[in-house]
Design goal:
The complex is a heterodimer of chains A (about 675) and B (about 325). By secondary structure, chain A is of the alpha/beta class. Chain A is built from 25 helices and 15 strands. The chains are: A alpha/beta (about 675), B alpha/beta (about 325). The structure holds cobalamin, guanosine-5'-triphosphate and magnesium ion.
């Protein structure tokens, strides 16, 4: 084989994960991005849309249009795709619990553009197991959720044959702390669970087509050589699973196809410009070797840990891809690692680990049954990662080494270097929704929903009545509520209870010192210092809350942590009933300005006077207003030393209870 | 909030459910300075103050880790509330002995309306007594039973550790996993005292749950314990068996000599308090456990726990 390709490869699909405020504003953003040379769309929906609530639902308060675009009905989808020729577009939608619904809206919006479903191209993420494990936008219990996925796959394979109905995601697992081995093993286990569920709903001869439509959404961290090996290992396993478990032998169908968003967990608030280097290296991990190259890439931006990226920040990241694809000679060669001893060795090592872990998951009865096990394992891995950063074992430049820095000019603008969504958007969307409801044919809506409820309770495919709902003008909240009533609701496991306990004397000396202080303050209080870690709103970012909860436990505190997506009333009730000495709230989704004051009010109404601390993505500009509202302390990603946070919290409790500082 | 023990007892006697958090904050307090307030609280909810035993039904729900106790409580709480009964849940979590701290995870499994003051849930670490009760649980149950219709204590354990919750509860339900032979083994070998009600969870798993239920019933029959109900429940949708379980719990309670059970609970509680406070050495001073029990048996049947503790301490001196 020549060391050159006869002609250079075509570049991968270039996307930017985008959407905010309203469908119209997001549409303008998409058009701008396409004009800049982006070759596909990647839609970020807001959290109410992702979890199946309308903008006027009490649970949507503070979240409408914040971290994505709100799509409450067909009209919003029309506006979102206005002027974008859907027959030529390749659209990736990060949508899961409500994926069937958003796909239906997309199909009907395309119909209105005279584009038939058969020619639509794109992806619905539609992977629920990783929502339970890492991402948090689930709505229904595991059983019915898997059925919705299987229904969608069965539908698209015949009706929208170029669509990727599901993206099995390992991306989010790495973002929740997974090691490369866990990333591979859990993603493959998940794929098996999905394929097995579909096998029950399609004729056997169609399984080849089903298998070939399953694509992956992976991550690549800064250890980019090993990360590349990880992708090759996934390719090997995928082919093996196809051949051995599903009897597929068509080479094309067996190919491991994946899109990527590179690692964001390792992007830092301190010296944020360093993130650009990290992103470039991570992009190499998924492009360098031709045999395991990504089909589609989207990159985070330099200001990832500060807040939402502005159009210019996203442009910078798109330009990284363009330089890599069009300026360098990357696409001119066959696979660079063929015959590489290092690469083969790494792949073998990862395969061995992954196979062992796959077996453990299988022993639990498969991915769905093993959710609790996998969740606990992820919390433990993340715990270890943070411990290594704190101890300096794992170098992160600008965090635990080379921390001296000139002031960064990047974030000094009037906007603080981030995009801030106008809080007026929520009221606007509520009004627009009211108008939509008034204008539609109410009896058609009722009939469509009644049929949806009937099918939900039957064995028929959910897509038929879902498409009918889309055409009748049903809203996202109505569709999801009907299914919640049919299927019930679910709370995913938190994984924290099973996390390995820190042992006195074996961890850091600093932690032992904090333990002594927790004990001393507990003695003075009369009972063990008790903390409530609460996650208000629809935010599913659980990492911080989980790690704070585990570390508080290791520091000797009694910890109440009830998982994500709680209402202010639930948090206040827990705080009151549990008699906690301090309340820690964690919000990363940007709804803190609305939600924190609401929680403070609920606590006051319940008569709880324990101090409240807040952690998460809190821009500098919001610190003073939150403190004025009564928040005692605020922590952001730069406060990476959890033990220090614990020391701070004990001191706060001591101070509030009139307990003198230690001698 | 006030932790005046007598005042809290007054609120409980008046049926004020909102007293519950302060009651727990008080009884969980280990400092000796608060002891008189706790004593005042317990005196205020003793039979003499109430004019009889506290009316609430104290139910113990116990079983091995992860068997589905908290999820079952979620279904039970919903059913009790639908029937208009107020419920307090005392969830005792085995704590990490090594760090001294604990992650209290039971509450997360229980779905309730946060605006509903007739539901109260408190999680407490078991402290060093793994699988047993938290030091405060006995006092909490005694106090809350004065105001709540149902007081449930969730503890982890299978085998001997149930005895602690059996000392406190009017009715003990042991929850077992379908397919696991543990309970069967324990019952047959006599390690486990026969509970008042046996619950097989995860009935939605089908055959295996039904088979476990059948095996347990057979084992009980062979021991001559025909009367012990064995109920199969599914705590997740579609919920089943919960009404049957509630009926079994109610039936047990209806046939119970509550006064005798509570008397035993107060005496056992006093003994546990003295043992916790003064250790085995303290017990030896009153002639060991047996001696202490004989001494307690001579006390008035209506005597409250602080009085019993005082009697033991006086005898030890
Ligand atoms: C990891 C991650 C994810 C993971 C989350 C996995 C999980 N289970 O937690 C995944 C991939 C699932 C994810 C998804 C999304 N994400 Co995200 N994510 C991140 C990322 C990269 C890191 C967050 C993290 O976990 N850090 C590690 C933990 C340990 O740190 P931490 O939570 O910050 O906690 C520290 C402090 O903040 C503080 N702290 C935090 N909580 C608490 C609580 C207490 C009591 C105390 C004392 C301290 C404290 O102490 C900790 C110690 O250092 C951030 C960007 C960044 N680099 O920070 C974006 C980020 C938070 N995500 C963002 C967005 C928009 C999303 C999505 C909503 C996108 C979408 N439209 O779908 C989704 C949906 C998630 C959902 N359901 O809500 C935005 C939020 C924008 C904003 N606030 O304006 C960010 C900032 C990225 C960006 N710049 O756009 N995300
Ligand atoms: N299929 C099924 N699963 C159940 C049922 N009840 C509980 N579970 C599951 O069993 C697991 C443990 O449930 P918990 O209620 O936390 O069990 P527990 O006994 O309280 O656990 P610990 O307090 O940790 O000892 C969870 O994953 C539940 O979803 C049931 O009736 N059917
Ligand atoms: Mg439990």
């Amino acid at each position: 084989m020549s060391h050159r390709l006869p002609e250079p490869d075509r570049p991968w699909m270039m996307r930017t994960y985008a959407g905010h405020s309203t469908a119209a504003m997001s549409n303008a953003l998409y058009r701008g991005n396409l004009a800049k040379g982006q070759t596909g769309l990647s839609v970020a929906f807001d959290l109410p849309t992702q979890t199946g609530y309308d903008p006027d639902d009490p649970l949507a308060h503070g979240e409408v249009g914040k971290v994505g675009v709100p799509v409450a009905h067909l009209g919003d989808m029309r506006a979102l795709m206005d002027g974008i020729p859907l027959g030529d577009m390749n659209t990736s939608m990060t949508i899961n619990a409500t994926a069937a619904w958003l796909l239906a809206l997309y199909v009907v919006a395309a119909e209105e553009q005279n584009v038939e479903a058969r020619s639509l191209q794109g992806t619905t993420q539609n992977d629920i197991v990783k929502e339970f494990l890492a991402r948090g936008t689930y709505a229904f219990p595991p059983g019915p959720s898997m059925r919705l996925i299987a229904d969608m796959i069965a539908y698209t394979v015949t009706e929208v044959p170029k669509w990727n109905p599901i993206n099995i995601c390992s991306y989010h697992l790495q973002e929740a702390g997974a090691t490369p081995v866990q990333e591979i093993a859990y993603a493959m286990s998940n794929a098996i669970a999905v394929l097995d569920a579909v096998a029950e709903r399609v004729p056997a001869e169609r399984m080849g087509a089903v298998f070939s439509r399953i694509s992956f959404f992976v991550n690549a961290g800064v250890r980019f050589v090993e990360e590349h090996a990880k992708l090759r290992a996934m390719g090997v396993l995928w082919e093996e699973i196809g051949r051995e478990r599903y009897g597929i032998d068509d080479e094309r169908a067996l190919r491991f196809r994946y899109g990527v968003q590179v690692n964001s967990l390792g992007l830092t608030e301190q010296q944020p410009e360093n993130n650009v280097q990290r992103i470039v290296l991570e992009a190499l991990a998924v492009t360098l070797g031709r045999d395991a190259r990504a089909r589609a890439i989207q990159l985070p931006a330099w200001n990832e840990a500060l807040g939402l990226p502005r159009p210019w920040d996203q442009q910078w990241s798109l330009r990284i891809q363009q330089v890599l694809a069009y300026e360098t000679d990357l696409l001119e060669y066959p696979d660079l690692f063929e015959g590489s001893k290092v690469m083969d060795g790494l792949v073998a090592e990862l395969l061995e680990g992954a196979r062992a872990e796959l077996a453990v998951v299988a022993e639990h009865g498969g991915a769905v049954e093993a959710v609790s096990y996998m969740k606990a394992a992820l919390v433990d891995s993340h715990r270890d990662r943070i411990r290594r950063i704190e101890s300096g074992e794992l170098t992160v430049v600008g965090i635990n080494r080379y921390t001296e820095s000139e002031p960064s000019p990047l974030a000094t603008g009037e906007d603080g270097g981030i995009l801030t969504v106008d809080p007026g958007v929520e009221a606007e969307q509520r009004a627009a929704l009211r108008a939509w409801r008034e204008a539609r044919d109410a009896s058609a809506v009722d009939a469509a929903l009644a049929e949806l409820a009937r099918v939900a309770g039957s064995d028929e495919n959910i897509m038929g009545p879902t498409l009918a709902c889309a055409r009748a003008g049903v809203t996202t909240g109505e569709w999801a509520r009907t299914l919640r009533e049919a299927f019930g609701e679910y709370r995913a496991p938190t994984g924290v209870g099973e996390a390995t306990a820190g042992v006195r004397g074996s961890g850091s000396v600093e932690l032992d010192v904090v333990r002594d202080e927790v004990e001393r303050v507990g003695e003075a209080l009369g009972r063990t210092l008790k903390i409530l870690v609460g996650k208000p709103g629809l935010d599913g970012h659980s990492n911080g809350a989980e790690q704070i909860a585990v570390r508080a436990r290791d520091a000797g505190m009694d910890v109440v942590y009830d998982g994500i997506r709680l209402t202010p009333a639930q948090i206040a009730k827990s705080a009151l009933d549990e008699g906690v000495h301090v309340i820690g709230l964690s919000i990363l989704s940007g709804s803190h300005r609305e939600l924190i004051p609401t929680v403070l009010e609920a606590l006051a109404a319940a008569g709880v006077d324990a101090p409240v601390v807040v952690g998460g993505i809190i821009p500098d500009a919001d610190v003073a207003p939150l403190k004025e509202a009564g928040v005692a302390r605020i922590y952001t990603p730069k406060d990476f030393e959890l033990t220090r946070i614990m020391r701070d919290i004990v001191a706060l409790v001591a101070e509030r209870n009139g307990i003198a500082a230690p001698a | 909030m006030s932790d005046d023990g007598a005042a809290l007892a007054g609120r409980l006697r008046g049926g004020d459910l909102t007293a519950a958090p302060a009651v727990l904050n008080l009884v969980e307090n280990r400092s000796s300075a608060r002891r008189p307030e706790i004593d005042a609280l317990l005196r205020g909810v003793a039979p003499a103050a109430l004019g009889g035993e506290a009316p609430g039904h104290v139910v113990g729900v116990t079983g091995p880790p992860g068997v589905g106790k908290s999820t079952l409580l979620s279904a039970l709480v919903a059913a009790w509330r639908a029937a208009g009964r107020s419920v307090a849940v005392l969830a005792v979590d085995p704590s990490s002995k090594r760090s001294g701290g604990a992650l209290l995870g039971d509450r997360a499994r229980i779905v309730y309306d946060p605006e509903d003051t007739a539901v109260f849930i408190r999680s407490t670490a078991a402290g060093s007594r793994l699988g047993g009760l938290a030091p405060s649980t006995r006092a909490a149950a005694a106090a809350l039973a004065a105001a709540f219709d149902v007081v449930v204590i969730e503890t982890v354990g299978v085998g001997q550790s149930e005895t602690e919750v059996a000392e406190v509860a009017d009715t003990v339900a042991v929850v077992v996993q379908p397919g696991s032979g543990d309970a069967l083994q324990f019952i047959k070998s006599g390690i486990m005292e026969v509970p008042d009600v046996l619950v097989v969870t995860k009935a939605d798993l089908g055959q295996v749950a039904l088979r476990t239920r059948r095996d347990l019933s057979a084992a009980l029959r062979s021991l001559g314990e025909r009367g012990t109900p064995v109920v199969a429940v599914s705590s997740i949708a579609p919920v089943q068996g919960v009404d049957e379980l509630i009926a079994a719990l109610d039936e047990h309670r209806a046939g119970l000599d509550v006064a005798a059970r509570r008397l035993a609970a107060r005496r056992a509680g006093a003994l546990a308090d003295v043992a916790a406070e003064h250790g085995e050495a303290g017990l030896r001073a009153v002639g060991g456990r047996r001696g202490a029990e004989r001494l307690l048996a001579r006390e008035d049947e209506g005597a409250d726990v602080p009085t019993l503790v005082a009697a033991l301490e006086a005898a030890a001196r």
